[in-house]
Structure formats: C-alpha cells, structure tokens
Amino acid sequence: PGMNINWELVWSSLGPLLTGAIAGTIPLALASFSLGLLLALLVALMRLSRNRLLSAVARVYISVIRGTPLLVQLFVIFYGLPSVGITISPWPSAIIAFSLNVGGYAAEVIRAAILSVPKGQWEAGHTIGMSRHQTLVRIILPQAARVSVPPLSNTFISLVKDTSLASLILVTELFRVAQQVAAFSQEFMLLYLEAAVIYWIICLVLASGQSALEKRLDRYVAH
Fold this sequence. Notes:
This protein has helices at 7-48, 52-67, 70-80, 90-116, 119-127, 132-162, 174-185, 188-217. It has 223 residues and is mainly alpha-helical. It is flat, with a radius of gyration of 21 Å. The mean pLDDT is 90.
C-alpha cells in the first residue's frame, strides 16, 4: 500500500518548521560561518607565516579539527566543559563548535587561494610603494576571494545542513522543531521528509547566490 500523506499536518506544520529555519537554522549558520571565516583567515595567515611556532600551532589546530567528528566537538564543548567548571548555554556552544569547525576547513581553502595568486602580484604591489600588509589587503585577498568562493560556498552549504546537529544540545532550529512536531503527531517519516525538503530549498537558494557572487568577484581577477 502507498503512503497516505496527511496534507493537513504538512500545511499546519509548515509555519513552525519555517520559523525554526528562519529564527534558528539560518542565524546559527550565518553567525558560525562569519566567525569561522575570520578565524580561518587568521589561521591561514599563521600557516603562511615565516614564524615556525605560529605555523605549527595553525597546523595542529587544522589537524585536530579535520581529524575529529563535528558531533564530538559539539559534545566536548556543551557536555564536556562543565566537568572542568566551564558551562556554556546551548546557542553559544553551537556557535563556538561550528565556528571552530569552519575555521579548520576554510583555513586550508583560504591558504590555497592565497598561494594561487601569482607572485608577480606581490612584486607589483611592492613596486608601487605598498607595504606587504597593504598588498595583501588590496591586491592579493580580493583575487584569492574569487578563487575561494566555490569551496567556501560548499562549506557554508554543508554548515547549514550540519546545524541540525545542534538539536542534540537542545538548540531550537529546523530539525528540532520537526522532531517535536513528529513526536506529538507520531508522523515521523512525514515530518522528517518535510524538514529535508526545506533544507534542500535553502541549499538551492545558496547555490544560486554562489553563482551571482562569483560573477561579481570576476572583476578582481587579473587576466
């Protein structure tokens, strides 16, 4: 027998699910990605530094983040830290865990993007009297940004989906709302599929935004 779809439940649950996405999932992803991106830039510059200590610290951080599951990182911060006297509420815990995770993955993307800019661009900046810092900010990073947009966009899209893990530490976002409605209605398959469709639509919108951003950044690429 085919699955009988309870359309009344689908429509009545759509509002709470969208609220969970707009008030929970999207802000959580944006805040975490923004902080993670700043951290990634710092770590990438540390990796490129001639200071061996800074470079080593950055390498260890990247190795730890990329070598451990995001769920474990989330649990260490929310459930583990209280055992050493540090208690952080659910939302900040989720933002810290996701930001650290993004920082570890995006740092290598940014480092590779910076290294992809021809060395002649550094020399050009020096020739017109720019300091190394000015050359980095005004010439190198804008060109590196164009190169890094596709992989960083993929990182952000993955983060949007990974925010569903925050439901495990009681953060109210899209998937937690779906769990609550499913538990009340006992329509688990229906609610989880509905949540999946909403995640999918969000990711489609982000993918189209990625294409528009790539075109906008084309003007910074040296041809």
